[in-house]
Amino acid sequence: MPKDIIDSLKKKYQGKKVLVVGLGLQGGGVGIARFFADLGANVTVTDKKPKEKLLQSINRLSDLPVNFHLGGHQLSDFLEADVIFKGPSVLWSMPEIVEAEKKGIPIEMELSFFASVFPGKIIGITGTRGKSTTTQLIFNLLKLSDFSVYLGGGLPGISTTNYLKTLTENDWVVMEISSWALSGFHRKKISPHIALFTNIYPDHLNYYKNMDEYLYDKKAIFVYQKESNYLIINSSLLDSVPNFFYTRVSLRQGRGPLESKKKFVTSSTIFFSKKDFPNKLKYLMGDHNLENAAAALQVAKILKINERKAVKIISSFKGLPFRQEIVGEKNSVVFVNDTTSTTPIATIKAIDSFKNKKIILILGGNSKNLPFNTLIKRLIEVEKIVLLAGSFTDQILDILRESIPEKISKKVYDNLEEAVIEAYRLCKSLDSGLRLNDKKYRNDKIVVLFSPGATSFAMFNNEFHRGDEFNRIVKKIIDI
């Protein structure tokens, strides 16, 4: 079967001009370029970033005949292409994309292209928070339950399309799918076999015009499902976005507006909440992770995995890097890396996870134009706040100076190392009176919580670059 797929794609794309828009540093652009170069296509990669900022990705393609047009875009590349692969963060309204569409040139995105070709089954996970953790939980669950399963989607370093060289109709792919990637599913009019929603909060309003646009893209994960498919929903969504799932019901059953949760439920729609997970998590903290665990358990039930075995596997999951990751300890100070917190609500979740501890919060970066009033109110709960430079910090600085001036740092830091050192200094100034306990965290330990609540682009390439830098700094502090 893999040979049949590859032979078919080679026949279609060999000698064709394939344009990859957005090389990036996380592997997606590299994967697409490599896949089509291997098929014999004439591949050109274009990115608005200059060569020196993309060397890591360029070097990964050095063995292939790939053309690079960097530091800006050339309209001729778009108009002369046979097919264009658009990166997730590239806007559909980008002038060159619009002109190419006018000419009838097909615009593809990696995950929707993969889903349209892959003969097996896909479990797609979306949501504002918890996507990556839930995706990894479900992948581990299937892997340890002897399924032939692959991890895909918008995760760093993973090129889902390259799996087409080996996958068969008997395989499963568990993939994280962002709202940006889901826009491609709308255009293909396809949805995963099992679709899972972790939650929905305002996000990416620096990309979308409004929340309705964001929700529209999210809806692609289930709106094209077939009768035999499954939709797994966080039950809280029926309160926060009560009309969001209406299309699914009206398409299938012709009902009018929803009147109750009971009317909404169908045989292929499953709800979950944190109460549905019957065990404690050994390594993950916070109610949000109990929700992630409960979601994974629903997948186990659909696939008829022994529930007791599933609970054991899920309970033992150690978590992912950069998501409330405990990096190290020194002198009763615990350093926590939550760099993937790029929204105010994510920082609130992090504060909740350490609510019984003294927190020195490192906060700030660039804005996504999201509501922040609830976060501002919650900041009274932390001991001190060390601020990082960026447009989000600019938005909240005057409010913080007026409401909690005693808690915020005297300066706004444009250097992460200086900010972390200041946070550690503030910890030492607090009277903790503790000694380290290697086996568990006591309530009176101090936590340096790096949960910025904003994007990283003021100072870093992306949040993962930011997270790596935080870990490097913490290791340096611990080793002194």
TrEMBL record:
Molecular function as annotated in GO: ATP binding; UDP-N-acetylmuramoylalanine-D-glutamate ligase activity
Keyword Cell division recorded: yes
A Pfam family recorded for this sequence: MurD-like_N
Family classification: Belongs to the MurCDEF family.
GO BP terms: cell division; cell wall organization; peptidoglycan biosynthetic process; regulation of cell shape
Protein location: Cytoplasm
Superkingdom in the source lineage: Bacteria
Pathway in which the depicted protein is active: Cell wall biogenesis; peptidoglycan biosynthesis
First-level EC class: ligase
Occurrences of domain Mur ligase central (ranges): 125-299
The EC number(s) this enzyme carries: 6.3.2.9
Binding-site positions, ATP: G127, T128, R129, G130, K131, S132, T133
This protein's name: UDP-N-acetylmuramoylalanine--D-glutamate ligase
Alphabetically ordered keywords of this record: ATP-binding, Cell cycle, Cell division, Cell shape, Cell wall biogenesis/degradation, Cytoplasm, Ligase, Nucleotide-binding, Peptidoglycan synthesis
Organism: Candidatus Roizmanbacteria bacterium GW2011_GWC2_37_13
Organism ancestry: Bacteria, Candidatus Roizmaniibacteriota
Main location: cytoplasm
SUPFAM superfamilies: MurCD N-terminal domain, MurD-like peptide ligases, catalytic domain, MurD-like peptide ligases, peptide-binding domain
GO cellular component: cytoplasm
Task performed by this protein: Cell wall formation. Catalyzes the addition of glutamate to the nucleotide precursor UDP-N-acetylmuramoyl-L-alanine (UMA).
Catalytic activity: UDP-N-acetyl-alpha-D-muramoyl-L-alanine + D-glutamate + ATP = UDP-N-acetyl-alpha-D-muramoyl-L-alanyl-D-glutamate + ADP + phosphate + H(+)
